[in-house]
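dumping this here so i dont lose it
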């Protein structure tokens, strides 16, 4: 054999060797996947997951079925799906398989009252995922009144995200630029809701005139107007009055902004929304006074959404009188957590559909930040935790107590939010084609909630002792299991939300009826 023949044989042998090495490497990789190690999902770009034997719960239906997940989407929901090689199996026998929670109300790294809420988009989302919430909608604030700048800032803040999120945008003043920016945000940036603060005089508060302009613009754009409903002028008056009486501690907070001020602002916002014929979303309904306004409006056919938050549903104001400042200050938020009786009324309203969905208003400030108001309750940064605890507490307060069904639980923690903000059934459902944001909830489990073990950066916790979510799957990956988090910084996705959701259906007909009912202008002969 000549030299060239030898060279060809050597080349062929080398090629064979390379081929062999490649096969072994792929084999080893497959082995890692098939072994089903704890980090199975990390080793794969697009894990394949089969959740077996659980009760799959949607807002309108529940059935025993398996759920097959691939490519970040739910592919199949059906009984007895065959186990296949390379597919990770999660046994959910005796447990509920549900859409991941959607928290409609959070404030990550929010600059407020001279401080910044202490969870950023990463730590806050770690907290959320470990509690079974797979999407949240955060309130972006304008930067010096500029909405476009505020949006860009929030986009930057959210770069570190590890789960899906969307934004509401606040409107804190009114001019042509604000109107233009609202249009840009809706048409090009995936925002379909705007929040107006009727409180926080001197910082975020808007006047009735600004509220009206904002409502009109929202209606034109098909975006949902939201209100923080407290009479800010009267709150300022109440704060001066209570402080003047020598009441400087955290108990001064609820005393200075009683339920009547929340009821007044809620009623005012509802009436202005009726005048404009726009839907309205009232955030953090905390009192019977506000609830009565929402109830009356809904009873009359007006499209008003009422959102209680977990603190209002589960707690009362007694801790604000705690002799220990650190303890009492933990509970300072606005509108305040109310006296015994209000939370029960809110629970009842939620169970009968007068209120529609549950948020958290997660806006945590740690003890050092809260201590800024040690000698003046008006300086205690307002806000409490909740994004990690919401799913557990709502289960405990609403399902365990027998007030609602498991399907209703899914509705108020996930589906209603997805529908209101026009992202259903991408979110809020366990259906083929939906995003694979899924939780496994064990009704018999007790996971400890405690400041010592929670994932939020806050050093206190107003909820100690609840817990039920065993597995969280976000974007098709298991991120929470065996009380361990496996998340990737930067893997979160911004979920754009389209305008003109169902709340806007038929409003044009109501407008047309109104116009034709006027019998005006009257032609008069002068
Ligand atoms: O106390 C609260 N609620 N802090 C966050 C800001 C707000 O009003 O939602
Ligand atoms: Zn608010
Ligand atoms: Zn809030």
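and the seq i came up w/
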């Amino acid at each position: 054999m000549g030299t060239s023949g030898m060279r060809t044989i050597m080349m062929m042998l080398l090629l064979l060797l390379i081929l062999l090495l490649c096969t072994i490497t792929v084999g080893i990789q497959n082995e890692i996947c098939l072994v089903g190690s704890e980090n199975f999902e990390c080793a794969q770009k697009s894990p394949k997951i089969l959740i077996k034997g659980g009760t799959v719960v949607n807002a309108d239906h529940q059935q025993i079925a398996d759920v097959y997940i691939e490519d970040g989407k739910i592919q199949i929901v059906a009984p007895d799906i065959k186990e296949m090689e390379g597919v990770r199996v999660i046994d959910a026998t005796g447990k509920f398989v549900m859409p991941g929670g959607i928290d409609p109300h959070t404030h990550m790294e929010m600059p407020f009252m001279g401080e910044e809420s202490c969870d950023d988009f990463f730590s806050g989302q770690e907290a959320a995922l470990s509690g079974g919430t797979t999407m949240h909608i955060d309130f972006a604030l304008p930067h010096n009144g500029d909405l476009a700048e505020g949006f860009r800032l929030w986009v930057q803040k959210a770069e570190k995200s590890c789960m899906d999120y969307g934004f509401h945008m606040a409107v804190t003043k009114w001019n042509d630029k604000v109107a233009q920016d609202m249009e840009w945000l809706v048409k090009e940036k995936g925002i379909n809701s705007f929040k107006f603060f009727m409180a926080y005089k001197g910082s975020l508060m808007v006047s009735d005139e600004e509220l009206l302009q904002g409502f009109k613009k929202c209606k034109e754009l098909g975006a949902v107007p939201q209100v923080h409903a407290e009479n800010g002028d009267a709150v300022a008056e109440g704060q001066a009055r209570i402080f003047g009486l020598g009441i400087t501690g955290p108990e001064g907070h609820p005393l200075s902004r009683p339920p009547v001020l929340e009821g007044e602002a809620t009623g005012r916002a509802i009436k202005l929304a009726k005048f404009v014929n726009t839907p309205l979303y009232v955030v953090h309904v905390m009192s019977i006074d506000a609830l009565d306004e929402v109830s009356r409006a809904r009873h009359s056919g007006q499209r008003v959404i009422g959102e209680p938050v977990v603190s209002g549903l589960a707690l009362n104001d007694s801790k604000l009188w705690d002799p220990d400042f650190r303890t009492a200050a933990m509970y300072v938020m606005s509108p305040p957590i109310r006296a015994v009786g209000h939370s029960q009324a809110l629970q009842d309203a939620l169970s009968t559909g007068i209120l529609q969905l549950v948020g958290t208003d997660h806006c945590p400030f740690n003890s050092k930040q809260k201590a800024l108001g040690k000698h003046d309750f008006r300086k205690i940064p307002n806000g409490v935790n909740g994004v990690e605890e919401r799913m557990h507490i709502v289960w405990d307060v609403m399902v365990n107590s027998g007030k609602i069904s498991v399907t209703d639980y899914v509705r108020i923690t996930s589906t209603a939010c997805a529908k209101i903000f026009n992202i259903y059934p991408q979110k809020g459902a366990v259906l083929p084609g939906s995003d694979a944001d899924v939780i496994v909830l064990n009704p018999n489990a007790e996971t400890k909630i405690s400041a010592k073990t929670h994932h939020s950066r806050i050093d206190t916790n107003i909820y100690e002792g609840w817990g039920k979510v065993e597995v969280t799957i976000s974007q098709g990956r298991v991120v929470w299991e065996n009380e361990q988090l496996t998340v990737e910084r930067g893997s979160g996705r911004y979920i754009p939300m389209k305008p003109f959701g169902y709340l806007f259906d038929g409003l044009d007909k109501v407008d047309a009826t109104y116009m034709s009912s006027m019998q005006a202008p009257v032609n008069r002969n002068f």
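The mean pLDDT is 93.
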